[in-house]
From TrEMBL:
It comes from Methylobacterium brachythecii. Its EC number is 6.3.4.19. The N-terminal region contains the highly conserved SGGXDS motif, predicted to be a P-loop motif involved in ATP binding. The gene is tilS. Residues 336-370 are annotated as: Disordered. Residues 27-203 form the tRNA(Ile)-lysidine/2-thiocytidine synthase N-terminal domain. GO terms for cellular component: cytoplasm. This is tRNA(Ile)-lysidine synthase. It catalyses: cytidine(34) in tRNA(Ile2) + L-lysine + ATP = lysidine(34) in tRNA(Ile2) + AMP + diphosphate + H(+).
């Protein structure tokens, strides 16, 4: 890819996000210093109006060179006439360092965007990132919401959206763009560290492509499932609206007959939304596990509604009850005496060990975004 060709392609991808009705707006660029985000910063600076861009680098402080790399991003940003901020992650989770770093990254970006008045945050996720995400979620047992991959746009915070303009562009083209424009960039060693699932899968991608599971086919799968999931989600919202009945504050009541009459895929999503709605802080809720939700709906709720029997189960810190008359109520569960994680059925088998994480198959959707 030549520099000129690359400039045109990146400019087209960025244009919808840099202008609203031909008027500029403040956009925050998330730039780590790698080739993808370096290309994002340079291409945006080349096409955006003056003073409409800001840059932020999240320093996770996980490697000795991370602070120096963040400072280097700042130097390039200033040469381009852009203001730059380093956002430091100063807390550490007990486990799941990559998941913790990702959550912290988005939290810091949202906070900084709100502070400077930016309504949009752009990241430089590529087609390769999308393909790897779909493959990881496929191996983790995700449903359609997870296999839809990373959303092209999503809510990041109050009045702030996140967008990924380069999601259709292969990483190699962004590397070529940097080289064609003499832009230096860093190589994150964790990208080749086989302790991490994504790095291990990255080494397998050429072999999978040779068997027909190409990046393009994984992206096509994501697009198809995103369309289907959007339709199913609309159906779930409509079902909740039609089935909702009066309930005490902080609780949800649903007409069981309406849930029973709907398709199973719609009922599954409707109950998931109802459970999320009673969470005081969904960000702190127990992770959404598709297999646990399926056990609750298919092995518990629907049979109880069909047979007119009582049901009382817990899931993700909520209590789901079915009365013999068919009314379904969802409310926060009382505190448990045991420290054991809640489940829909204590007799059910524990989630399988996937990818060496012993975490089970995640239901990855709106509550667990990339």
């Amino acid at each position: 890819m030549t520099g000129g060709q690359g400039t045109d392609q990146l400019a087209r991808a960025l244009a919808p996000y840099l202008f609203v009705d031909s008027a500029p707006r403040l956009v925050l660029l998330a730039v780590s210093g790698g080739p993808d985000s370096t290309a994002l910063m340079y291409a945006a600076a080349s096409g955006a109006p003056e003073r409409s861009l800001a840059v932020a680098t999240v320093d996770h402080a996980l490697r000795p060179d991370s602070t120096r790399e963040a400072e280097n991003v700042g130097q390039l940003a200033r040469r381009l006439g852009l203001r730059h901020a380093i956002l430091t992650w100063d807390t550490r989770p007990r486990g799941g360092i990559q998941a913790g770093a990702r959550a912290a990254r988005y939290r810091l970006l949202a906070s900084h965007a709100a502070e400077i008045g930016a309504s949009l945050v752009l990241t430089a996720h590529t087609a390769d990132d999308q393909a790897e995400t779909v493959l990881m979620r496929l191996m983790a047992g995700s449903g359609p919401a997870g296999l839809a991959g990373m959303a092209r746009e999503r809510v990041l915070g109050a009045g702030i959206r996140l967008a990924r303009p380069f999601l259709d562009i292969p990483k190699a083209e962004l590397v070529d763009y940097c080289r064609a424009n003499a832009l230096s960039f860093v190589h994150d060693p964790s990208n080749a560290d086989d302790r991490f699932t994504r790095a291990r899968l990255r080494t397998l991608m050429p072999s999978l492509a040779a068997e027909g599971l190409t990046r393009e086919r994984l992206m096509r799968l994501a697009d198809r499932l995103a369309r289907d999931e959007a339709a199913l989600s609309r159906g779930a919202r409509d079902l909740l609206e039609a089935a909702r009945r009066p309930a005490v504050p902080s609780a949800f009541a649903l007409d069981g007959a309406a849930l029973l009459a709907a398709s199973e895929a719609i009922t599954l999503r409707a109950l998931d939304r109802a459970i999320e709605s009673v969470q005081p802080d969904p960000r702190r809720a127990t992770p959404r596990r598709l297999e646990r939700l399926e056990r609750l709906v298919f092995d518990g709720l629907l049979p109880a509604l069909s047979q007119g029997t009582r049901l009382r189960r817990t899931l993700r810190g909520t209590l789901v009850e079915v009365a013999p008359a068919g009314l379904v109520t969802i409310a926060l569960a009382p505190p448990r005496r045991s420290a054991r994680n809640d489940d829909t059925d204590s007799r059910a088998a524990a989630p399988s060990d996937l990818l060496g994480k012993a975490g089970g198959g995640a239901y990855i959707g709106e509550a667990c975004p990339e």
